[in-house]
Structure formats: C-alpha cells, structure tokens
Write a structure and sequence with these properties.
The chain has 995 residues and is mainly beta. Among the domains are: 106 residues, Alpha-Beta Horseshoe (Leucine-rich repeat, LRR (right-handed beta-alpha superhelix)); 266 residues, Ribonuclease Inhibitor (Leucine-rich repeat, LRR (right-handed beta-alpha superhelix), Alpha-Beta Horseshoe). The chain has twelve helices and 65 strands. The strands form twelve sheets. It has a 32-stranded mixed beta sheet, with no helix packed on it. A seven-stranded parallel beta sheet has the order 52-54-58-60-62-64-65, with no helix packed on it.
C-alpha cells in the first residue's frame, strides 16, 4: 500500500490523473510500472506517424507497428520495442527504430520520465525542430544511445558526458547538430567505457583537433566521417589498443600520417580514409595492418601513385577494397586482385584504366577454369567466385563483357557504366543481382531474359547504349523491389500494354527518354513516392493525364516531359511541394503560365503555345536558377521583380510578344549570367542597371525596338562573352574605350542592322583579348556547361548569312558582325590580331579603302563578308594564307585586278565577286589582260540573293571539304526540324536526302 501511495504521488506530481482503483487494478495484473506505461502513452500521442519509405535500411511495417501496438490497459512490457527489467518492472530498453514518428521533443516530454532506460534507439525518425536537450543527461544508467538520422539540431550538450556508463553513442546523420570543443572534451573525458562512437555528419568544423586525444582506450569503433574536421589527425588514435573500425572519410581538410612505430599489432580491420588529405604510404600500411579486411581509399593522395595497387597483394585477409577515383591508369593488375582470395567487394571506378577484362580459359589437363589476360599475355588465378560487389564504372575499358561475370553465384552489385564495352549482354546464370548499371557503353542487341528474372533488383540502368527490341511492361512484373529504372537513349520500343495489372510500389526513379513511347506509363498512377520522372524525347501525344498531378505530391523533385507531342493545359498551380526541376519544353502546351512551388530551381517551358502575361507570382520563386519561357506567345511587360531574384542565373524570354521596357531593377549582387530577350517588342533604352550584373556572360537583346546609343558602359563587365544588339534602333558612333581592358572576354559581338555610324571602333578591335589566341584547344567546351549539367547557353546570331539560334555555343565560336549599319572609313589593320575569329561581317556599310593585308593572320576565319561597301584596289594575294576560309563575299565593291589563285580561292564562285567590274580571273569569265571579256549579267535571282550577301547554292564549297556552314565543327545543335528547314532553304531538296 505504501508503494502504491508513492507511485500515486509521483504520478500526480507529474500531472498524471489516475484513480486509485484503476492504478491498483492495472498494477496487480501487470509487470510494467503504471508511471512508465503512462509516460510511454503520452510520448506516443505527442507525435504523428508519417509514411516515408526513403530509408532503405527500414522495415516500415515492423517499425510503425511497434508503437501502434501500445494500448492503454495492457502490459507495457509486451508492447513493441519495449523491454522491462524482469525483477523491478522498470522499462530499460526502448527501440523505436524506423518508427516513422514526426514531431518535436520538448523538455517536458514524458520520454525523460523513463529514468531507468539503459538502451534508447530513436533512429530513422523525424524530430525536425528538436534540440538535443540537456535532459538526455538524466539517463544515468544508459549504455546505448542511438539517435541516428533523427533530424535533431542545435548544440550537442555537455550533459551527454553525464552518461558515464555509455558503451555506444550514435549521433550520426544529423547534419544540423553542432559539436563544440568544450562539449567534446567533457564527453571524451567522462565516457571512459565507450566502445562505439559515431558522429558521422555531425558538424565538427570548429572542433580543435587535439580534443580527440582523450578518447577512451576501450573504443572499438570510431566514425567521424563527413564531420568537417580540419587539421592534423592525432597519430595516437591509430594506436588505440582495441580500435577495430576507423572512418574519417570526406573530411577534405583533414591531414595526417600513419604512426611510424608500434603499429604492427594494431587490431584495425576496417579503415576508411576516402576524400581526406592524408598522405598514404600503401606499402607501409599493408605491412602493419595484419588484420585489415576492409580498406576504403576513394580519392586519396598516395605517396607513390601506381605501387599502391602492387602492394595491395599483401592484404591477404582483405574482403572489401575501394580504390575508386584515384586517376590510376594503364591496365588493371588482375593478377594482384585475384590473389586476394577472400575478396568479395572491389571498387575501381572513376580511374583511367584501359584495355579489356580477362576472359575465361581452361587448363586442358584438369579442366579447371582460369582467367587469361590477353593484353598482358598472362594466365591469372581462379575465377573470383565469391565476388558480391564489382564496380569498374567510369574508366576507359573496352572489348566485350567476359562470360565469367555472368556466372558469379553471389554477385549483387555490377557496375560497368561509362566505359566502351561492345557486344551483347549475355544471360546471367543466377538471380542474385540487386544493382546492375551498364549505362554509357556501346552495347547492342536485346535485353536478356535473365535480367527480368532478378527479383532482388532495386536498380537497373541500361541507358545510353545501342540496345534494341520491343519491350513491354509485363516483362518487368517480377521486379517488385525496383527503385531505379533507366532505359533512356537506346533503340528500344517500350509499350505499356495491360499496365493496369502492374504497379511498382518502391519505384522512385524512372528514366525513359527516347524510348519510342507513345503513351503515358499508366502504372505510375500508384507510384506514391516517385522522386524523378524522365520521359523526354518520346512520341507521347494528347493531354497530360489528370492522375499525373497526384503522383508524388510530397516526393517528386524532377519532372521532364520535354520534346514530346503533348497538348492541352497544365494546372495554373503545380501540385508538387518539393519540385526542383520542371521541364516541358518543345511540346504544344497551351494556356497561361503555370506557377511552380517556391522550391523550384529549373523551370523550362520554352517552345510551347503559352499565352498571356508573365504573372508577378513568378517572383515568389526565390531559389530559381534557370527560367526559360522562350518561344511562346507571352505578352505584356516583363515583371520588374525578376531583376531582384538573387539566385537567378539564366533569364530566357526570347521569341515572345513582350513589350514595354527592359526592367531597371537588376539588383546589386545578383547572379545572372545569361539575359536573352531576343525577338520581342521591347522599347526604350538599355537600362544601366545591367552594370549590377557582374557575372553576366551573355546579353542578347536582338530583334527588338530598343532606341539607344552604343552601351559603352558594358565594356567594364568582367565576364561578358556574348553581346547581341542586332536589329534594333541603336545609333551614334562608337568612341574609344573608357577602361583599360574593354570587353576582355568577348567572343561574339553582333551590332548588325542598326543605325551606328562613324569610324569602326579600332580601339576595341585592339583589345578583344579572348579573340587573340591561336584558336587551338585541347577539348571542345560549351558555354554554360560550367553552371549546370542540364543547361547550355544559347544565343541568336548571324552565321554565314543566316540568322541562327544556337542551342549550344562552343567556346571556340567567335564572330564579329557590324553589317547593315552606316560605318565609314577604312578597315583597321588591328583586325589582324584577332586570330580566333571564325566569322567577320562588315557588309552593307560605307567603308572604303583597301582590304587590309593583316587579314592574312586570321587562320581560323571560316567566313568573311565585306560586300556592299566602297572598297577599292586589288584583293591582297596574302589572303591565300587564310586556309580555313570556306565562305567569301566581296561583292558590290569597287575592287579591281586579278583574283588570287590557289588554296581556298579556287573553290569560290562568281557570287563572291559580283558587282566588282574591275576584277578579272577565275572564276570570272573575264580573263586578266582581255579587255573584251565581259562578266555575265546577273539574273534577277542573282540580284536578289546578292542583296542578302551572295548566292547560297555555292556555300557548300570548301577547300578539301564537302558540306560546311560550320556543322562540321559542331558550333551548334539543331533540332531535326530546324536542320531540315535550313537545308531546304539553303540547298533545296537534294540536301534533305542526306539527313
């Protein structure tokens, strides 16, 4: 009775209202203390249970069912996840791992009433907004505390050090947790019995590294990876007498060396130093760590570059080896790895290995299968039949995939992506795979039947090959665990017949670009947790189905339906809460502009039939990076607030019907790199607020009605590479530069079809630094690819007489176009220093004087148009040195004398010289010295084409080359429709046969 009174008083003191009779009845029939039961029930009701399958390590049915089993009036010692002391009845263990709890743990939470807890596991729950409270220090009997991946934040309190009996502490996976030096020092000093300490992803960036010196000598496992540690790691920790597992990975500023003595008896069996700045002597490491079976050295710094692989042969006990992304090259030393007879996991991805994989060969005397390395002419060891994990992705391996890889009975993970493998995919002998990635090779043929029998498969990636055949959804029916499926960019034809019968409940990533799909995959209607959907470049017609707007409302972050045949409208408010990328480019979508959620970073709606004004709500996208609304029928003015979006990189509003003026509100510190407003009805001057765009690389305002003088003030923008002002009402002369290095990075300058006058800007020609190098490059790069894998910069310029929209711009593409203005005077000799120029157009001006001989230095120039001016004198013989010249137009001038003969000049036709009555020689009929010879009278068509530059039926002529106009060097990527249109326009039907 005394005990009952004490219990009752305790309960009342904590605001628990129990009647004496109910407590007595409950206590008499239960082992569990009533105050523990009540505390647990109150704890349960302080949280909601959410449905999230994003954690692979969770059994959600088991996790949620634990806490759902807690019922009032039952013995709490029988509840799921609850363990009681059999003598006292106190709750001593609470396991809510993967319980799917969501809510905040406040300081008065009844969890802290369970004072006898020895083990607490709250891992894989969502306590966002919860501080790691000092109250956790009340569990003085605690031996195991696991808060892994539970979304705690704030400082790790020093009261954790009160848990002096702790054997294991896991605070990992809480990136908003911060651990300071003072708290770590107290914790390491008091937790002298600690065996396991895991602080992965806890922010320790301000921890003084020496505070780790007092770690418990009892430690068997220490995980400090992804914690932001800096400085020199104490060698003493390597010498801890019981330490078996040490992970320091992904602390990029953490340096250190291995101990120089007393290390040969180290019990370390798993060592992870990936992406640290340790200086690793592999030979010393393997001589000392006798018990090592797991070694992870991804992206490391080795004292010797290639010997690490040679010395790996001494790791006789190794089972797990990761040497990925270390720039190792040459052939893979298979003879070393195959000697590691216990090896079950090998990761050599992200290196520069070459050659073929060894194939199986048989010893004729005993019929035992070995591996033969044909490149090294070696007989290797037995086939590694115990391999479970093999990743050789992102190397330069070639040849066929060897047959022995298909016969490994325990193989779960096979990664061969981004190599140059050829041949077909053979049948797998076992259904053991959970991960198969063969993307980015040159494999052909059908997908083998055995792939569809891999019932444990969670990830299947076959995109970017030449696989062929018809695939129907029912072939995937056994792959119920599939989370990632990529078949994009093959020659497959995928159909969804009878898809009503199939669902993939775990599917999160679906990539089916360019799969000849003609309908939406209806099975997605039940994909509640879809994260990424990629259906671009297919043949899907009709309206977007209504059920799609309900798919992945709480999970979808990436949706790409671009380059299809979709029609109809989309909702004015997109439903996905956490959408990051929305891409419906190149369809026939109509209606007003839909508004995405604030989380959106990539927003692409170009090449549709959208109309109406751009709503000011678009400015609620505070994190938007890329906004592309080009090639629609949008009208009205540009919202002023767009200039205030601090993260916006690309603003592309080309080819609409926008009017008014360009916003004057570009704020200081903005991130804009590309402003494309070409092809609208914009008026007024160019706003000087553009000077605030210090990162600007492309400014394209061509084909508008802008009325202004030359924006000389733009010359100070440090990163400007493309300036397109063509076809506006710009006027006045261009004076000398005002800064020392004007337009120092400019690659494309198009001022054509304006009202500029006066002399050509010699001061600028002499300072275009980016155009002065010799044009040689190690690799082709596109503008904009530095900013995103998903976007390349574009612009509209005149190329060899045609206005062309570039979908990608090569960095080597450099042009100057001042045509169709009123410039006068002579062409300056300074032009000759612009050695990188590909195109130079001064046509339709009032220039006079001689053609400068300095043009001979433009060895990269492919087209030169000086037509319709008042140039006189002879064509300089030095122009024969321009061996890259493919197109020349000198028509409608006053040139005279002999046309140079040889090299490129032997390929140019009459149209290049028409209207120069004093010229003679090939290709004209007027021979030099023959005053009687007459040039053929131009036809009406000739006159018409001459006004546009020259006759384009001869454009395709080039010295030692066939079809040119820049496609051979890949300046841009045309869509099929644009390319067909261009060929029809410039070459007639005969070129269409070549497409």
């Amino acid at each position: 009775m005394c005990r009952l009174i004490i219990v009752s008083l305790f309960v009342l003191s904590n605001s628990f209202l129990f009647s004496t009779s109910s407590i007595s009845s409950f206590y008499n029939s239960s082992l569990c203390h009533p105050h523990d039961a009540s505390a647990l029930l109150h704890f349960k009701h302080s949280f909601s249970i959410f449905n999230d399958t994003s954690y692979r390590d969770c059994d959600y049915n088991l996790g949620a069912s634990r806490i759902l089993s807690w019922k009032n009036g039952t013995d709490c010692c029988t509840w799921g996840g609850v363990t009681c002391d059999k003598v006292t009845g106190n709750v001593i263990q609470l396991n809510l791992h993967c319980g799917q709890l969501r809510g905040i743990i406040h300081s008065n939470n009844t969890l802290f009433f369970l004072r006898h807890l020895r083990s607490l596991d709250l891992s894989y729950n969502d306590f966002s907004g919860s501080q790691l409270l000092a109250n956790f220090g009340r569990f003085t009997s605690m031996r195991h505390l696991n808060l892994f991946h539970s979304s705690f934040d704030g400082q790790v309190p020093q009261e954790i050090s009160y848990l002096s009996q702790l054997l294991s502490l896991d605070l990992s996976g809480n990136p908003n947790l911060k651990l300071e030096t003072w708290s770590l020092q107290r914790t390491t000093a008091n937790l002298t019995n600690l065996k396991e300490l895991r602080l992965c992803f806890v922010n320790m960036s301000f921890v003084q590294i020496h505070s780790l010196m007092n770690l418990s000598s009892s430690l068997t496992s220490l995980d400090l990876s992804y914690s932001g540690l800096q400085g020199k790691f104490p060698e003493k920790i390597f010498l801890l007498p019981n330490l078996q597992v040490l992970s320091l990975s992904y602390n990029q500023n953490l340096t250190g060396f291995f101990p120089k003595s007393n290390w040969s008896t180290s019990p370390i069996r798993e060592l992870t130093l990936s992406r640290t700045a340790f200086s690793i002597d592999m030979s010393y490491l393997v001589r000392n760590l006798k018990f090592l079976n797991g070694l992870y050295l991804r992206t490391c710094t080795f004292i010797r570059s290639y010997p690490p692989l040679v010395m790996a042969g001494n790791l006789s006990k190794i089972t797990l080896l990761d040497l990925s992304f270390n720039n190792f090259d040459g052939h893979i030393p298979w003879n070393i790895f195959l000697n590691l007879q216990q090896l079950i996991s090998l990761d050599l991805s992200g290196n520069n290995f070459v050659g073929q994989l060894p194939e199986t060969c048989t010893n004729n005397s005993n019929q035992i299968s070995f591996l033969c390395d044909s490149s090294q002419h070696q007989l290797l060891d037995h086939v590694p039949m115990n391999l479970e994990y093999l990743d050789l992705s992102s190397n330069n391996l070639n040849g066929t995939i060897p047959s022995w890889l298909y016969s490994l009975p325990f193989l779960k993970h096979l990664g061969l992506a981004s190599n140059q493998f050829i041949g077909t995919i053979q049948e797998f002998h076992y259904a053991s795979l959970s991960y198969l990635n063969l993307e980015g090779n040159k494999l052909h043929g059908a997908i083998p039947v055995s792939v569809f029998q891999q019932q444990n498969l969670t990830s299947l990636a076959l995109g970017g090959n030449n696989l062929s055949g018809a695939i129907s959804l029912d072939q995937f029916s056994k792959l119920k665990n599939l989370e990632y499926l990529s078949l994009s960019y093959n020659n497959l034809s995928l159909s969804f017949n009878n898809s009503d019968n199939y669902t993939f409940p775990n599917l999160k990533y679906l990539l089916l670009s360019s799969c000849n799909i003609s309908e939406f995959p209806y099975f997605l209607r039940a994909s509640e947790y879809l994260f990424l959907l990629e259906l671009s470049q297919n043949k899907i017609q009709g309206n977007i189905p209504k059920w799609l707007w309900n798919v992945g409302v709480d999970t979808l972050v990436f949706l790409n339906l671009s380059h299809n045949l979709l029609t109809g409208h989309v909702p004015e408010q997109l439903p996905w809460k956490y959408l990051f990328t929305f891409d419906i480019r190149s369809n026939f979508i109509q209606g007003h502009l839909p508004i995405p959620p604030p989380s959106t970073h990539f927003y692409f709606l170009s090449n549709n039939q959208l109309f109406g004004e751009i709503p000011s709500l678009i400015c609620a996208l505070t994190y938007i990076d890329f906004l592309d609304l080009s090639h629609n029928a949008l009208n009205g003015s540009i919202p002023l607030c767009l200039g205030n979006l601090s993260y916006l990189l690309v603003l592309d509003l080309r080819m609409n019907m926008l009017d008014g003026t360009i916003p004057t509100t570009f704020s200081k510190g903005n991130s804009l790199i590309n402003i494309a407003l070409n092809g609208n009805r914009l008026k007024g001057p160019l706003p000087r607020a553009l000077l605030n765009c210090r990162h600007l690389e492309i400014l394209d305002v061509g084909n508008n009605m802008i009325n202004d003088t030359f924006p000389q003030w733009l010359e100070s923008l440090p990163n400007l590479q493309v300036l397109v002002l063509r076809s506006n009402k710009f006027h006045s002369s261009i004076s000398s530069p005002n800064v020392r290095f004007p337009f120092q990075k400019l690659r494309i300058m198009d001022l054509s079809n304006n009202l500029f006058q006066g002399l050509l800007p010699t001061g600028y020609f002499g300072n275009f630094s980016a155009m002065m190098h010799d044009g040689r490059v190690d690799k082709l790069e596109y503008m904009g690819e530095d900013h995103s894998y998903y976007y390349q910069d574009s612009a509209t310029v005149t190329m060899k007489g045609f206005e062309v929209s570039f979908e990608k711009i090569l960095k080597i593409f450099m042009t100057i176009d001042f045509s169709k203005n009123n410039f006068e005077g002579e062409i300056p000799e300074a032009v000759g220093i612009l050695k990188s120029l590909k195109g130079f157009n001064l046509s339709h001006n009032k220039l006079y004087g001689h053609i400068p001989t300095s043009l001979r230095n433009l060895n990269n120039l492919e087209w030169l148009d000086l037509s319709s001016n008042y140039l006189y004198g002879e064509i300089p013989m030095q122009l024969l040195e321009m061996t890259s010249l493919e197109v020349l137009n000198l028509s409608q001038n006053h040139l005279e004398g002999a046309i140079p003969s040889g090299n490129q000049f032997d390929t140019f036709r009459n149209d290049s010289y028409i209207g120069n009555l004093g010229l003679c020689g090939f290709p004209l009929t007027k021979t030099c010295g023959d005053d009687e010879a007459q040039q053929p009278s131009p036809s009406a068509n000739d006159d018409e084409e001459a006004t546009n530059g020259f006759q384009w039926k001869y454009v395709y002529m080039g010295y030692g080359s066939g079809l040119v106009i820049g496609m051979s060097v890949g300046y841009m990527f045309y869509s099929d429709e644009r390319l067909t249109c261009l060929m029809r326009k410039v070459g007639g039907g005969r070129w269409l046969k070549l497409l």
